[in-house]
Write a structure and sequence with these properties.
Blueprint: E1 5-8, H1 17-28, E2 31-34, H2 55-80, H3 86-116, H4 122-155, H5 157-164, H6 167-186, E3 195-199, E4 204-208, H7 217-247, H8 249-255, H9 263-290, H10 304-307, H11 310-317, H12 322-332, H13 356-382, H14 388-418, H15 424-457, H16 462-466, H17 469-488, E5 497-501, E6 506-510, H18 519-553, H19 564-593, H20 601-606, H21 609-626
Parallel strand pairs: 1-2
Antiparallel strand pairs: 3-4, 5-6
Helix pairs in contact: 2-3, 3-4, 3-6, 4-5, 4-6, 4-7, 4-9, 7-9, 7-18, 13-14, 13-21, 14-15, 14-21, 15-17, 15-18, 15-19, 18-19, 19-21
Length: about 650
């Protein structure tokens, strides 16, 4: 059935008419053309009137007052007590200060703006909202710093005072947090179409300034991604800290029993001060991704003319399409026809021409990944320069990437080029196995980055923590178990089986006519992969900071850096994880920023499957090039401990 063209006349404001038509076209699959009227800002929009919701501003008032009250008490208590120490106490007081000021803005501006509905000059709104974003960035970075503080305090109590209790360290941490928060809050001013303002109808911060919907996405996405990285990294650090507390709780209780106190309870209380908040933030971020369709009608962007129109903004806030349909039926007499029924397997509805280029790229990258990772696996087994744990992680990563590359070269490339029919169950089985291997690779990236960070920051404790056989076996089992758990998520609902599309050149959830039902598990899997990738990149940057600091500051006094080989080996080991993590994270960011261009199959391929296969190639290529010792077969019996690279 052909789509019926509907010609409607959208009243003021005319700058918002393209946005309305675009959303109606995408949601209703209708060919809608708009005919804007010429009007000025004083003309009122004849839209749907909705009553002002009193509950939202009242809730803002109550939460803001509670935040101000409790943070003020916390600030006073921490400043009077000495149990938090110097660095931890300063971070807690700083977090309470920024949250008190942020709560004052939400109470004095956000709440009153929603409750009274008064008009605010856009520059005043942008200034207050940008300052609020600055405070929010401070809070996220402080959460991350506090989580690192707790992790070091639990894992390395003897080194804690040397690292955190010096005035220079505290000053540097505070200065870095303020600098990075200023940079994050200033990103919105890099594009004249992305000034942050608070919308009294959406109850949220939105970019505003231009008619073009796509112009404000870049800086907005970067800010949100930075916040998400800080939140999820803090949660990961908290979970790692909790594992240490749980493992040694009984031992600590028995050791300190004669003293009449159990220090691990204090550790648990300190842990809960960061974990609960980080868990709430991360749960909210996941909910935003899973329920993204229900959050806004215009993908979070409101042109300036719509920002000034109360009725239009209320329409933007409505989650569904039925309200629009009823309004257009009543106002313009539009008739909406139902879309034709979709087949159970929409991936195969379109048969493309044979894309030789895409198939050749998949074939070439997969073969390169297989050859390079096979060589790396062979040389690691012959030359034990990486030690026990680090070498085991690299071997596991090479094995899973070889298997994933075999699926890409034997199934993905042939399906794209030959365009043959394959049963749905076979496609789903092969794609699920590929997803399992990909999950293994992401987890191993995270563990390798954590291994390097620990090796550089705490070389004296490395052997007793990582170079123990039973712990390495536990790590293997955990990686396989978590990867299998992630792979099984799509099978919890019959509408989300992962299958490879020869049309889209990507993995898609299929199985039902309703695509919305398959998005939850799909989003969860992608979010877990993104958490591993960004956390690995963040740990790599932290490791690089330590390497550069030690090389510059201690090159004359420390015997560790007297030879150039130790410095170069640290850098080479660092590059083995950093380059791949940088490629993966750049691809994730590009996917978010260029999401509107994913209708192009080539674009989707280059930002999805291509960057994954390219990462496989770099994982095999960089260690071979960076470590000449791997290629010296005569040294197959020599073992250079991983500590020599610290």
């Amino acid at each position: 059935m052909e789509a019926k063209e509907i010609i409607i006349e959208i009243p003021c404001p005319s700058p918002g008419s393209p946005l309305i038509a675009q959303n109606l076209s995408s949601l209703n699959s209708q060919l809608i053309r708009y005919k804007p009227q010429i009007c000025d800002d004083s003309q009122e929009f004849d839209g749907i009137k909705t009553e002002r919701e009193i509950g939202v501003p009242v809730l803002i008032f109550l939460l803001s007052l509670c935040a101000i009250f409790f943070n003020a008490i916390a600030w006073y208590g921490v400043s009077k007590s000495k149990i938090f120490g110097k660095s931890y106490g300063i971070m807690m007081r700083m977090r309470s200060s920024v949250e008190i000021v942020a709560a004052l803005i939400t109470f004095g501006f956000f709440g009153t703006h929603v409750f009274f509905g008064y008009s605010v000059d856009i520059w005043m709104n942008a200034a207050l909202t940008t300052f609020y974003v600055f405070l929010l960035s401070n809070a996220y970075l402080l959460h991350y710093a506090i989580s690192i503080n707790r992790l070091v305090s639990i894992y390395f109590p003897m080194r804690y005072a040397d690292i955190f209790e010096e005035k220079k360290c505290v000053f540097v941490v505070v200065a870095l947090i303020l600098i990075f928060s200023s940079i994050i809050s200033s990103l919105s001013f890099t594009d004249r179409c992305s000034y942050f303002v608070f919308s009294k109808e959406l109850y949220d911060i939105v970019p505003v300034g231009c008619k073009d919907v796509k112009s404000s996405k870049i800086s907005n996405h970067i800010v949100v991604i930075i916040w998400a990285v800080c939140a999820f990294s803090s949660l990961v650090l908290d979970v790692i800290t909790l594992l240490r507390i749980a493992v040694y709780s009984r031992k600590a209780a028995s050791v300190h029993h004669n003293h009449g106190s159990i220090p691990w309870t204090r550790n648990v209380r300190f842990f809960l001060q960061t974990f609960i908040v980080n868990l709430i933030i991360c749960a909210g971020a996941i909910a935003v991704q899973v329920a993204s369709e229900r959050l806004s009608f215009s993908n979070g962007f409101i042109p300036y003319s719509l920002y000034k129109m109360h009725e239009m903004c209320n329409l933007t806030r409505t989650p569904g399409t039925n309200l629009w349909r009823e309004y257009l039926k009543e106002k313009y007499g539009c008739v909406f026809e139902k879309k034709p029924a979709q087949s159970v397997n929409p991936v195969y509805d379109v048969v493309p021409s044979k894309p030789v280029t895409i198939a050749a790229i998949i074939l070439g990258l997969s073969l390169c990944a297989i050859i390079l990772n096979a060589l790396l696996l062979h040389f690691i087994r012959k030359n034990r320069i990486f030690g026990k744990s680090y070498g085991t992680l690299l071997r596991m990563r090479s094995i899973v990437e070889i298997l994933a590359s075999f699926i890409a070269v034997g199934f993905f490339s042939t399906l794209v080029y030959l365009d043959y029919d394959i049963p749905i169950w076979a496609n789903s089985t092969l794609t699920s196995f590929y997803t399992f291997m990909l999950s293994n690779a992401y987890f191993l990236h995270f563990l390798i980055s954590f291994n390097r960070l620990f090796c550089i920051y705490f070389p004296g404790r490395y052997d007793e923590i990582f170079e123990i056989g039973w712990r390495i076996r536990i790590i293997k089992v955990l990686v396989l178990f978590l990867s299998a758990l992630i792979t099984s998520l799509p099978f919890y609902t019959p509408c989300s089986y992962f299958m490879f599309s020869r049309v889209i050149y990507d993995i898609l959830p299929v199985g039902c006519e309703r695509k919305e039902s398959s998005k939850a598990t799909n989003h969860v899997v992608v979010i877990i992969w993104a958490i591993c990738a960004f956390s690995s990149l963040l740990m790599d940057i932290t490791t690089l900071t330590r390497i550069v600091y030690q090389h510059v500051a201690k090159s004359r006094t420390s015997a560790l850096f007297r030879s150039r080989s130790s410095w170069s080996k640290n850098v080479r080991f660092f590059l083995q994880t950093f380059i791949v993590n940088l490629i993966i994270c750049a691809g994730v960011v590009a996917v978010q920023v260029l999401s509107d261009r994913f209708e192009s199959h080539d674009t989707r391929f280059y930002f999805a499957l291509f960057q994954v296969l390219l990462g496989f190639v770099f994982n095999g290529f960089v260690p071979l090039v960076a470590n000449r010792e791997l290629r010296r077969c005569r040294c197959c019996r020599s073992r250079i401990n991983v500590e020599s690279s610290k």
